[in-house]
Amino acid sequence: YQAKLQNGGFQFFNKSIISTFLRKLDLENELRWAIAKNQFTLFYQPQVSVETGRIEGMEALIRWNHPILGPVSPGEFIPIAEETGIIMDIGKWVLKEVCLQLNRWLSASLVVPAIAVNLSARQFLAPDLASSIHEIVHQTNCNPKHIVLEITESSSMHDIESVLPILHELKSFGFQIAIDDFGKGYSALGYIKQFPIDILKIDKSFVQELTSDSKSAVITKAIIDMSHGMDLRVIAEGVETLEQLECLRRMNCDMVQGYFIDRPMPTEQLEKHYLNEV
Ligand code: C2E
Ligand code: MG
Ligand code: MG
Ligand code: MG
Predict the structure, then answer these.
(1) Where is the EAL domain (predicted)?
(2) Please, are residues 205 and 184 in contact by the beta-carbon 8 Å criterion?
């Protein structure tokens, strides 16, 4: 690149465009090996009941620690994994890992709340999504009732006709379904009525403006009331302050997840602070 730049040909590209491009190429190449090289781990973030403060769920969040690049955030690499299709393998890896972890916890006689796993929009394009998920729970001998599949609103929007039968199939296996990041992106309410969902997660952008922007508060309250009217449980994401928690309590929100409660953490820490024996 330097030589070409000196020749003058690419001088109109500025340095930051080139480094962004190179970074992406690097990540893309490295992502292909990340599973085989054991570079992924899962962190777990507690979801607690607003009423009791007890843990009622936890979300599995992938972490990538590359030996040379260091930690790379999912916000940066998940979009690349989606673009390249590598998300298909990552998705399977995450679910299998969660199943194995669940088994370890259960066989240690720990009380384990439901574990939420993120599914990417792109995974719904695989015609064998449901069967590959079934294969994983079957292989690991895991009961899907312990697992919540989180799908993002935007992903499920595109093509209701093709997503709907897949969701019904996943429900029939025993999984719970949550809509993630609700309110962000293209909100069409029609699909909520059609989708077999159990949980709705309010996007953190609303939660974070809850106490500073009255419109965000009105929307949050409306989402909570609407969810209850449809027998869904509501989780508020990104709760960072006591004021937000108190506000959500007044609004009858069921569960909260966020830094104010706790950060995503490694399994050992979660066990120590949140899991008790039967
Ligand atoms: P998400 O599914 O909405 O997950 C919640 C994100 O919010 C996580 O970011 C979490 O660490 C962060 N978070 C939790 N509490 C707070 C808070 O109080 N304040 C703020 N500002 N953030 C908070 P993370 O782990 O960086 O993941 C980002 C996104 O990457 C996730 O958003 C999800 O869409 C995706 N992702 C993470 N793990 C996976 C995975 O295993 N598979 C797939 N397909 N996507 C994943
Ligand atoms: Mg999520
Ligand atoms: Mg998500
Ligand atoms: Mg979310």
Answers:
(1) 24-278
(2) yes
In this structure, which residues have their CB less than 5 angstroms from ion ligand 2? Answer: 118, 150, 180
d(CA 3, CA 158): 44
Q: Where are the beta strands (DSSP E) in 95-241?
A: 114-119, 147-152, 176-182, 199-202, 233-237
Pair of tokens at residue 244: 């937000």
Q: Name every residue whose Cβ is closer than 8 Å to that of residue 189 and which is 6 or more positions away in sequence.
A: none
Task: Say if CB 254 and CB 49 are below 8 A apart.
Answer: yes
- Find the farthest-apart pair of alpha carbons in the chain and give their distance in angstroms, rounded: 70
How high is the pLDDT of residue 16?
81
CA-nearest residue, atom 19 of ligand 1: 238
For 278, other C-beta atoms within 10 Å of its C-beta total 8
136 closest CA partner among 188, 179, 173, 178: 173
Distance 5 CA to ligand 1 centre (A): 38
ipTM of the complex: 0.98
pLDDT digits (tens, 9 = 90+) for 148-161: 999 987 655 667 78
Starting from the CA of residue 181, give the closest ligand.
4
> What pTM does this model have?
0.94
Residue 159: predicted pLDDT? 76
Nearest residue (by CA) to ligand 1, atom 37, is 61
Which residues have a Cβ under 8 Å from the Cβ of 227 and sit 6 or more positions away? Answer: 200, 233, 234
In 3D, which of 122, 184, 114, 183 has the Cα closest to residue 149? 114
Q: Is the per-residue pLDDT at 2 higher than 60?
A: no
pLDDT at 3 over 80: no
The answer, yes or no, to whether any atom of ligand 1 lies below 6 A from the CB of 240, is yes
Residues forming beta bridges with residue 181, ordered by sequence position = none
